[in-house]
From TrEMBL:
It is found in: Cytoplasm. PANTHER family: UDP-N-ACETYLMURAMOYLALANINE--D-GLUTAMATE LIGASE. Belongs to the MurCDEF family. This is UDP-N-acetylmuramoylalanine--D-glutamate ligase. Pathway: Cell wall biogenesis; peptidoglycan biosynthesis. It catalyses: UDP-N-acetyl-alpha-D-muramoyl-L-alanine + D-glutamate + ATP = UDP-N-acetyl-alpha-D-muramoyl-L-alanyl-D-glutamate + ADP + phosphate + H(+). It holds the Pfam family MurD_N. One of its GO terms (biological process) is peptidoglycan biosynthetic process. GO terms for cellular component: cytoplasm. ATP binds at residues 128-134. Cell wall formation. Catalyzes the addition of glutamate to the nucleotide precursor UDP-N-acetylmuramoyl-L-alanine (UMA). It comes from the Bacteria.
Length: 462
């Protein structure tokens, strides 16, 4: 593997910030079109190929910029003329076309890799199975008042397009394992790993170790001058670091133990120490609730402290941060029942955090595309906090079998509007209704955002 990477790295040196050559982009979505625009601006001949349909808005951008494209197919003869291929993170590395490209020794990179060649900005890269969106958004929120900073990666406008049009001096990038799969030289100045729990194992031969290694690619090119911020309470991360030391300067954070260089939580305060420079942040006015959000705040505050953001700015920003859509988002209170949208919880660990944070009897809406879920870690919360379960999916049998004997009320439906109406009938004053699916959304919805918006619309229509 190391030989393969170094070989690819040599081939990639031709675009160390210098354009030219034939750039093929597989996937005409946000990252693909952003890369196409940046590639063209840097002197590449660009061809965008998407096996599915390209959205009209993206097609119009490609046409307006005179970039050649195709949809509904991959013309292999043309693709194999590429000097470099940018692969959309949604395309698995196991498909036959990717194998053929590799056999032709054509380097394959991610958008993150490609775009990073054309910026000298300080990059904060944030990954993890859960919490990365909140942590990235919160980090950007802490930095934006004092630094020229963009937010990109797996969130919002593409990194490539921001490098082209905005040219920020700093970037906070939310980075998925799929985006990390195709990096070669990319390295963030500051890397954050929020946690690692089993997820997307269908993309990693159902081997958790492969997924862990993918996450740790965020630090693989770092040196002692760079920083890795990570959850010291996460045994998966700690054990992997012991067996596979990295070059980075380590800054752990913990809810459970005192940390000399890094961050910890004690007596409702965050204590962050970097090179004997300590700051203390009270958490009683923290806008985000739940233990997991204290961890997200520790990670983001450590980044802000590293980048010399003033303590007053950090404190004010922590207190006025409103969170992200579809992540424990309080929608409405109707008849003293709180409706909560946690549609972004697409795995069991994310739902664990959601149920842990519930402080009232809860009607739980769960279900979707099961990714080999093991629901056992949720049992204590279901027994303690959940009064009714509404299974929302095409196939709910596993959920019905798992939780059928644990609650008095368990029903199934394939319609969000019906799920919300059932919840309305079952919930009583003082209860919560929580959409936290623990599953992917693709059986009934376009994506988790569509699922969350349909939930909010249904609640507003009650």
């Amino acid at each position: 593997m190391r030989e393969e990477l170094s070989h690819k790295s040599n081939q990639l040196s031709s675009f160390e910030g210098v354009g030219g050559g034939f750039l093929v982009i597989l996937g005409g979505g946000e990252s693909g079109v952003g890369t196409a625009l940046l590639g063209k601006a840097k002197g590449y001949e660009v061809f965008v190929s998407d096996k599915g349909k390209i959205k009209e808005s993206y097609k119009n951008v490609l046409i307006h910029n005179e970039i050649e494209w195709e949809e509904g197919q991959h013309t292999e003869s043309k693709i194999l003329n590429a000097d470099v291929v940018m692969k959309s993170p949604g395309i698995p590395g196991t498909v036959s076309l990717i194998d053929t490209i590799r056999k032709h020794n054509i380097p394959i990179v991610s958008e993150i890799e490609f775009a990073s060649k054309f910026t000298a900005a300080t990059i904060v890269g944030i990954t993890g199975s859960n919490g990365k969106t909140t942590t990235a958004t919160l980090t950007h929120h802490l930095l934006k008042d004092e630094l020229n900073v963009g937010l990109a990666g797996n969130i919002g406008e593409s990194f490539a397009n921001q490098v082209l049009e905005k040219n920020f001096k700093n970037y906070v990038l939310e980075i998925s394992s799929f985006q990390l799969d195709d990096i070669v030289d990319f390295k963030p100045r500051i890397a954050v790993i929020t946690n690692i729990t089993p997820d997307h194992l269908d993309r990693y031969n159902y081997q958790f170790e492969n997924y862990i290694r993918a996450k740790f690619k965020i630090a693989k090119n770092q040196t002692a001058d760079d920083y890795l911020i990570y959850d010291a309470d996460d045994e998966v991360i700690v054990n992997h670091l012991k067996a596979n030391p990295v070059q980075s300067t380590l800054l752990p954070f913990s809810l459970k133990k005192t940390i000399e260089n890094g961050a910890y939580f004690k007596n409702n305060e965050l204590i962050i120490t970097i090179d004997n420079n300590k700051i203390i942040m009270p958490t009683k006015n923290l806008a985000l609730e739940g233990k997991h959000n204290i961890k997200n705040a520790m990670a983001a505050t450590t980044v802000a402290h590293l980048l010399k953001i003033r303590k007053q700015t950090i404190r004010e920003s922590l207190e006025n941060f409103q969170g992200v859509e579809h992540r424990l988002e309080q929608v409405l209170k109707i008849n003293k029942v709180q409706y909560i949208n946690d549609s972004k919880a697409t795995n069991v660990n994310a739902t664990y955090y959601a149920l842990e944070s519930m402080d009232a009897p809860t009607v739980w809406i769960v279900g979707g595309v099961d990714k080999g879920n093991d629901y056992r870690e949720l049992f204590p919360f279901v027994n303690e906090k959940v009064k009714a379960i509404i299974c929302l999916g095409v196939d709910n049998q596993k959920l019905m079998d798992t939780f059928g004997n644990m609650v008095d009320v368990i029903v199934e439906t394939q319609y969000m509007s019906e799920a919300v109406k059932i919840a309305y009938k079952v919930a009583e004053a003082g209860d919560n209704v929580l959409l936290s699916p623990a599953c992917a959304s693709f059986d009934l919805f376009e994506n988790y955002e569509d699922r969350g918006r349909q939930f909010k619309d249904a609640v507003r229509n009650l």
